[in-house]
Amino acid sequence: MRHTLDPGLTPDRAGNRSGVTPEQSTRWKALTVALVAGFMTLLDVSIVNVALPSIRDELGLSPAELQWVLSGYALTFGLLLVPAGRFGDARGRRDAFVAGLILFTLASAAAGLARSALWLVVARLVQGAAAGIVNPQVSGLIQQMFEPKERGRPFGLLGATIGVSTAVGPLLGGLLIALIGPSEGWRWIFYLNVPIGVVAVWLGMRWIPAVAGKRRESLDPAGVGLLGLGVVLLLLPLVQEREWQGSGKWLVAVAGVLVLAGFWRWERSYGRTRTALIELGLFKVRSYALGALIGLLYFAGFTTIFFIYTLYLQSGLGYSALEAGLAITPFAVGSAVASAIGGRFVQRFGRHMVVGGLVAVVAGLAATDVSLRLVPGSGGGWAAALPLLVAGLGSGFVISPNQTLTLSEVPVARAGSAGAVLQTGQRIGTAMGIAAVGAFFFNRLAAGQGDWGGAFRGALWLTVSFVAVALAAALADVLSGRKHAADPGRDPVDVAGGQDVEQRPA
Known about the structure:
- It is built from 19 helices and 2 strands.
- It is mainly alpha-helical.
- Strands 1-2 form a two-stranded parallel ribbon.
- The N terminus and C terminus are likely disordered.
């Protein structure tokens, strides 16, 4: 039996207005399908890292083309997040989820069959765009299917999915290459998505609730165009940082900031009479604004760890792809365990849990540097296992609780687009961090005449600085929350700018 659900209501509140509410077991099955798809799309952010030497040798890719295999995915991923989230909010999250998953599965097959550099790059661009369609539907479905007090556990699982998929990518990629061989192993990194995608599409159509009625509201095409252009201009010089020489490339980023400022003004004007692409009133909500900032800054540091560490282990210490993946596994294990725990206790401890997690990440990464200094040579990677486990535990207490707290006051009808804005910030943070830390790493490597250890340790502390700034933002949220609690007469923020988001004209 197919369940229907009003897109603006959670199942427990929908009652007879939305048809048949999904049974408890069905919504958890739907969540499982959504998380598997999210894991698969996020895994492809990092799993390709250890396969780059094999891809280069097989297809003869230039350094610029290798960069596009990695960064092109992130670029189109970030580009589609907000428009896809808004489309899912207005027209139905299940249909958008399934369409994106079908496209991702086909693009994965095309990437595995690639016979030239151009073929592979185009397939990766399409893969990224499909991932950008799928991911905002996941957080939107959690908002849709679960009451606010119930969301800690599903958001904890989502946080674990985000953290583990990024961290376990190098290990899984290294394992496939070790088992199948360098010439074919990298192709199976992409082929692996095909059977999983086919099953997920079938189960998604069966278990994910459809909407009872689709809201006929404008999708703000001008806003979509301005946001897309702004994101491309902002990310492109970050993606091409190592390929575009000279400082002139940063003028492109400045142009991106100006376009995004124009987008902001357009949204303010458009939102007075119609439903804008992004509900700007959300940024008046302290939990959402500071949570989005924390996410951007933390991902600027969090994802760069795997980029520079796998390079250091393989090129500096002579580790194989599999050994490099195994050396990073403690971080993934710690992140998975802490994310599951954090989801259960986030309602009790709130942003304090995020603060504690960020402190643990800073301490773990600092101890990683100490371990590598105390145990030089190839043994350093294994000596750093315990500090990385601590950092991973801290990461699990950051990603999942921050996601829950940031979206806790978001109206269900805007859950997809609000979650997409949050993820777009994370993608921008990732590109920003990789560009800044990568440039520092390679410049330090050149200046040190091949001193991989010195280059890695210097870049590691730049990573720590991003996490430290995120910690400062989390502390600011805690302190401002105390002031807010001390002023009981303060009026709540009206997210919809004085008008219920469901009642705005289309």
